[in-house]
Write a structure and sequence with these properties.
Blueprint: H1 13-27, E1 30-31, H2 32-39, H3 43-55, E2 59-62, E3 76-79, E4 83-90, E5 94-101, E6 105-113, H4 120-133, H5 135-138, E7 142-150, E8 153-155, E9 160-164, E10 169-173, H6 175-182, E11 186-190, H7 191-202, E12 211-217, E13 220-227, E14 230-231, H8 262-265, H9 268-275, H10 282-291, H11 296-317, E15 321-326, H12 327-334, H13 336-346, E16 356-359, H14 366-381
Parallel strand pairs: 4-7, 7-11, 12-15, 15-16
Antiparallel strand pairs: 1-3, 2-3, 4-5, 5-6, 8-9, 9-10, 12-13, 13-14
Helix pairs in contact: 1-3, 2-3, 4-6, 7-14, 10-12, 11-13
């Protein structure tokens, strides 16, 4: 997740290319002089790496704004945002397709609602239709691959969704069918884990080493945990299924077989019901909450239950920050002070006080940005060795 430090004495320039491109991708445009300082490389080495990245079509230089200083200012190096990833997020009521460029630049975001829970095949067809509609724009891009963010247990190495209960996917090959249909490399991972990466690189979690991220969508609640800057993954890669934290032992039965899981008690469907809607894009939920005062009791109930779970996470993970995405961000925005007070009351004395409660900054771009990081990982690791 970080660029590391370059080494002007190692025998492979690829490490140094990775260092420079990663700084540009995650940190935005930088002057050559800044890159030299960040990478700990000498100026001539940095210059040669920038030239190579430019020749590879991964970066370009622009003239800096006139600073009024005497002497020739250092050129500004930019990641090439026309090098893109296609992203896919299937959910129970829609499939969202994105086109994201290096530097986290969102070129396109298309949400296609579905009449039924989409299968893998239906998801592929929707993506093909969206990309066909963007054919003219895509002609100007260099596409690296496809990143798929799925709400469920995912074996990324095999490209298989072990279990996505809300989608009805079990032991479902996903990466290979997408790759075959689209003619592009495809990778799949858990949506909340990808969102955690995205928010830690480009959003509210930037620079935070210990955080808990909670994502709320139509498929339930997922999570991700950074501990000491490292993603908590578990032996099989299924760690941080935080939506199945027990919050009400006499509550609604969850699809996992237990009663009173967080995602059954704090639930987008139950929220939309009191808001008078069957479905809504996550960008719409804030406005709906503001427009329906009668929904207040349900909002307060969900906030108080969410606080119980967060109090547990504070004790278990001792984070610096807890970030709320999806409809959980909307709940938080509806009454931040109530959630804060409830979390303090639900936590071990003193532990919650220094913990920041924040809404995800990337909002509707969150899963799209995370899925793009999945695609860009190999390119950032070895810019000169990635063929696309």
């Amino acid at each position: 997740m970080s660029a590391g430090v370059g080494n002007s004495n190692d025998q492979t320039r690829r490490h140094n290319l990775s260092t420079i491109l990663t700084f540009l991708h995650h940190g935005g445009p930088q002057a050559r002089a800044q890159l030299t300082g960040l990478s700990a490389l000498n100026r001539s080495t940095t210059g040669a790496l920038v030239v190579e990245l430019t020749e590879l079509g991964l970066a370009f230089e622009t003239e800096p704004a006139d600073s009024g200083r005497v002497g020739r200012p250092s050129p500004i190096v930019n990641a090439n945002a026309n090098v893109v990833a296609i992203t896919v997020n299937p959910d129970i009521d829609a499939v969202t397709v994105g086109v994201v460029g290096l530097g986290g630049v969102l070129h396109h975001l298309v949400r296609r609602e579905t009449d039924a829970v989409p299968t893998v095949g239906a998801s592929i067809r929707i993506v093909q239709e969206v990309l066909d509609g963007l054919r003219d724009e895509l002609a100007g891009y260099r596409v690296v691959g496809v990143g798929i963010a799925v709400p469920g247990l995912v074996d990324s190495r095999e490209g298989v969704v072990a279990l996505a209960p809300h989608l009805g996917w079990r032991d479902e090959p996903v990466a290979r069918p997408f790759a075959d249909a689209l003619g592009l490399p495809a990778t799949v991972a858990n949506d909340a884990a990808l969102a955690t990466v995205a928010e830690s690189l480009f959003g509210a979690g930037r620079g935070v080493q210990d955080l808990v991220y909670l994502n709320g969508s139509a498929s339930g609640i997922g999570g991700g945990v950074l501990a000491g800057g490292v993603m908590l993954r578990g032996r099989q890669g299924y760690a941080a299924e935080l939506g199945h934290t027990l919050v009400n032992s006499s509550g609604i039965r969850c699809h996992c077989g237990k009663r009173g899981c967080l995602e059954t008690e704090v639930n987008l469907g139950r929220l939309l019901e009191v808001l008078g809607r069957e479905t809504a894009g996550l960008d719409e939920v804030d406005a709906l909450i503001a427009a329906v005062p009668d929904a207040r009791p349900e909002i307060e109930r969900q906030l108080d239950v969410l606080a119980l779970a967060i109090g547990t996470f504070v004790s278990v993970f001792n984070p610096e920050s807890i970030i709320l995405g999806g409809f959980l961000g909307s709940l938080y925005e509806a009454d931040p002070s109530r959630l804060r007070a409830s979390v303090d009351a639900a936590s071990v004395a003193g532990l919650a006080e220094p913990v920041r409660l924040e809404r995800a900054q990337l909002r509707s771009r969150l899963l799209t940005t995370g899925a793009a990081e999945l695609v860009f990982a190999d390119l950032l690791a070895d810019p000169a060795g990635t063929v696309f």
